[in-house]
Amino acid sequence: MLIDARATRAKSRRGCKTCKIRRVKCGEEKPHCVRCSSTGRKCEYDVSILNLHNPLSLSPNTVWRERRSFASYFQHTAPYIGGGLDVAFWSTVVPQVCRSEPAIWDAIIAVSALFETPEPPAPEFGPLSSWKKGQNHRDALAWYARSVSAVRQRIERGRLDIFVGLISCILFICIEGLQEGVEEAMRLYNQGVCLILTLRAQIAAGVVSATKASLLEDTIVPIFDRLGAIALPIGTRVHTLQRDTIDASRQEFISLKAAREAAVSLAADVQFFEYICIEHLRETGASHVDQELLGQQTTLSARLSSWHTSVTNLLDSLRAKGLLSPQQTGTGALLLAHHEMLYTIVRTCTYPSLTATDAYLLNYQNIVEQSSIALDASARSDGTQPPYTFELNIGVPLWFTCLRCREPQTRRMALALLRRAPRVQGFSQRHSAVDFGERIMVLEERNAMKMNAPLTPLSPLSQSPSSSSSSSRISRFDPTVFLTTPNHEYAPTPHSILSDINNNNNKISAAALIPEEARIGPVSIFRPQDGFPRGTTEQDIAKWKMRGPKQIFLRLSWNEHDVESDTWRTVHEYVPTTF
């Protein structure tokens, strides 16, 4: 859906009689337009115009459901969809726009209806397509279709205001996310980025008001930056829309919102740094990265430290003044959990050994602790989480903990909290994250128990790819089949690694019971249409049996020990997935 930057408003030729008499723009909602309804005026249309409209809107019962959904939006959707820091945008700005834009009205009530729709069953109980949809869900789909149709008609006629198109794009991303329409949501995201760049050009030309310009940079751009931080493909630098790089080392934050935007900027840089380190280690086979990357690590560590100091000072100041609300406490906990994750990534991604993360158990425990606080603060009145959020979400650091922390109790606590997180964050589905995180945990622990079977508490454990005295306890470790097996076939075994800990009386640390060879390295995601990972061969592509360029692949890695040469190598494998 392409937006014409020259789109302008035009007079309505199908408006109601009342708006025509008053010589004001009619939104053309049927059977009563929003303008008349909001001012208590009688609203009438010519019969010929009513007959052209979708029969869905002619039912008084449908009108009542629309108004009920709009009222529900203020109570159940606006306070949660963007998190506590963006409530004004969702509670004030978006509803104001819908007064004159029917497409926004329809998108709002569609989002509201989906927020009220009971959560669909987990994938193991059947595909979403077979789920029997209730009235709220059917209404949401009808209103969404009507909104999309209205936007398209405005585009075709060259009458769509770009700012309105951008807000509709944000609402459509939410609707698609709740429908598990990841591909469409990402297409909308890319379209939104183009709209932002077009609006900036208009702002520079002086044809956009200062109010809209401020709203764009202060609220809408950060929304897209947060979406971009978790968008596919993972293995490329995130394109930030922020005009200036936020340097947390040179400022004190005046608000939690400023701290959040700085955290997003840091996350983008840390993610790209980790990717560069992984590729360097893969290509060189070295035991550590070069001096240039170590210098970047030092710089990122300093930025993270300064950010943490600034946020801690801000929270202490608010607390001392009695201004730290429960919602702000939750936001602070959310930001601190993300900091612990980013810090751990920066400190461990310069080594090929997957056991390097074991030294950061305290950081993982802090993630779990802060996540619990954040989830309690973001819960709705009935104790549940909102089904969707544009906010930085606790799901990301919790998923990170599920994959990287091998201490079983902490890992399981993170998995339990992840199950409480919002169902959708941006483009990410919670059930996929939980499913994959649990598969990795079970896979690693099963193989660890096989490897450790002949060990006694005093036996040495192979813990580093650089170790020269280690011996391989399995001939081949291939997780790909296990990770693509249906859920009911990989249920956790009755004998868990927790019992190994108790049997050994803690003489061997919990994390150490999962040796190097049993661990899965950092997971990345790619699609062929975005380009193949470096080092991909024709043989790799031939065996993938791709369904198309949009097929999503997981890139897995693990360290494998060669007994004869007593050397280590990192194995990479690519798994097609629907996660």
From TrEMBL:
The keyword DNA-binding applies. SMART domains: GAL4. The keyword Glycoprotein does not apply. It comes from Talaromyces atroroseus. This is Zn(2)-C6 fungal-type domain-containing protein. CDD domains: GAL4. The lineage of its organism: Eukaryota, Fungi, Dikarya, Ascomycota, Pezizomycotina. GO terms for molecular function: DNA binding; DNA-binding transcription factor activity, RNA polymerase II-specific; zinc ion binding. InterPro entries: Transcr_Regulatory_Proteins, Zn2-C6_fun-type_DNA-bd_sf, Zn2Cys6_DnaBD. Residues 15-45 form the Zn(2)-C6 fungal-type domain. Residues 454-474 are annotated as: Disordered. Gene3D superfamilies: Zn(2)-C6 fungal-type DNA-binding domain. Keywords: DNA-binding, Metal-binding, Nucleus, Transcription, Transcription regulation, Zinc. It comes from the Eukaryota.
